[in-house]
Amino acid sequence: GDSVTQMEGPVTLSEEAFLTINCTYTATGYPSLFWYVQYPGEGLQLLLKATKADDKGSNKGFEATYRKETTSFHLEKGSVQVSDSAVYFCALIGGSQGNLIFGKGTKLSVKP
Amino acid sequence: NAGVTQTPKFQVLKTGQSMTLQCAQDMNHNSMYWYRQDPGMGLRLIYYSASEGTTDKGEVPNGYNVSRLNKREFSLRLESAAPSQTSVYFCASSVISGGSSYNEQFFGPGTRLTVL
């Protein structure tokens, strides 16, 4: 069935460092892809999305490009801030019911 | 707009007790969802309701029941709680469900449930 695999965490970076969180997927067809972010003690918020191959989603300095040839949707940010500390989830719409399927999440900690 | 609200925020139960988690949304969304979040497991879908009057099982429905009370409200019931149901529960809603590229889900703040 459809699935999402993202890099294991936790990831610890210094402020202003470059961030990459890898995400690959397995799905039939070309599903819409999402990155959600969960700040401590809160629910998930949509960070960005891409709906077709080669689309680039972007928001708050984060970017991810839908790569169908590598079935990937890696999250990047050029210069992280302490306020970016959170858990990041990659997800796709798939499965027999067309619901969101999440990766296991990657915890990011940014140190000043 | 409050978005998606959940009650209670925290709950401790003993094995065998029952309880209902409440969820409401004020965005006039058609579809609503219940997830559980466990360490290292991501979010797993328990039940969902594509529209008022319909409910369907997700990935992990055993031990739970749901009620779509009206368009705004979607409750999750644990009839006989077990320690394996200790988790953080999230409710979410979206305009529609299914494979639409516009199926953005909005999440509530979660309920932390501990079953002793």
Detailed description of the structure:
The complex is a heterodimer of chains A (112) and B (116). Chain A has strands at 3-6, 11-14, 19-21, 23-26, 33-38, 44-50, 56-59, 62-65, 75-77, 86-94, 99-102, 106-111. Chain A is mostly beta strands. In chain A, strands 2, 5, 6, 10, 11 and 12 form a six-stranded mixed sheet that branches. Chain A has a four-stranded antiparallel sheet with strand order 3-9-8-7, with no helix packed on it. In chain A, strands 1-4 form a two-stranded antiparallel ribbon. In chain A, strand 10 (86-94) and strand 11 form a beta hairpin. Chain A is globular, with a radius of gyration of 13 Å. The model of chain A has no long low-confidence stretch (mean pLDDT 93). Chain B has no helices and eleven strands. Chain B has strands at residues 4-7, 10-13, 19-25, 31-38, 42-49, 56-57, 65-68, 74-78, 87-94, 106-107, 111-115. In chain B, strands 2, 4, 5, 6, 9, 10 and 11 form a seven-stranded mixed sheet that branches. In chain B, strands 1-3-8-7 form a four-stranded antiparallel sheet, with no helix packed on it. In chain B, a hairpin with a 3-residue loop joins strand 4 (31-38) and strand 5. Chain B is globular and about 35 Å long. The termini of chain B are far apart. The mean pLDDT of chain B is 91.
